[in-house]
Specification:
It is a single chain. The chain has 205 residues and is an alpha/beta fold. The protein folds into two domains: 94 residues, Response regulator (Rossmann fold, 3-Layer(aba) Sandwich); 98 residues, no CATH class. The chain contains eleven helices and four strands; from the N terminus they run βαβαβαβαααααααα. A four-stranded parallel β-sheet has the order 2-1-3-4. Strand 1, helix 1 and strand 2 form a beta-alpha-beta unit. Helix 2 packs parallel to helix 3. The longest helix is centred in the middle third of the chain and has 16 residues. The radius of gyration is 18 Å and the shape is elongated. The two termini are 27 Å apart.
Amino acid sequence: MGTRIAVLKEEGTHPLAEGLLSSFAEIVPLGSLQDVAKLAEAGRDIVLVDISMPSFDAADVLKALQAGPQRPLVVLFDSTDRPGRLLSQLRRLGRMREARPGSLKQAVRVLGVSQEALARILGVSSRTVHRWLKGARPRRNPKVEKLLRLVAVLEDVLPTPEGILSYLHHPNPSFNSETPYQLLLRGESERIAGNLQALAEGVYI
């Protein structure tokens, strides 16, 4: 199953942006916050939220999304942007989602984690991680794939190893003053990737 992407925007506004977005994502027209609650319940991997909705506050929409059983990667966008600028931002999002590091060894180096910590992040035994790091290929594992995508985003957004470690281990207001590393240990790599996407675009969520 591919990545499930949804776009939340107010019904009947900015049709040009809707046309661009509908080429790769499901458009969810908002008539009320109950529509957000239904989407949160159904679950999506990535949700793009329009910050230029005349009848809705994006903060209320984000709160309704976070109340659901799953926490998607959330990206804020402005549907009133010029089409060329909006398209450029969407292409960047696509590149960040598709990029991957070469191996779990590279992930260990970039994240600066021990074998035991990596096992905890991936929800497997230390022995399994040891085999993987020695060259055994892990079977298709969503947690491994998400972690590799996060490492690719970290290297794309933060230019130095020192910058990556500083970001991971400092309290972040976007995460209620928890560190990204604390989220990583809970397996919430997509929330971290969403925050990095916001940093890259100059939008904070």
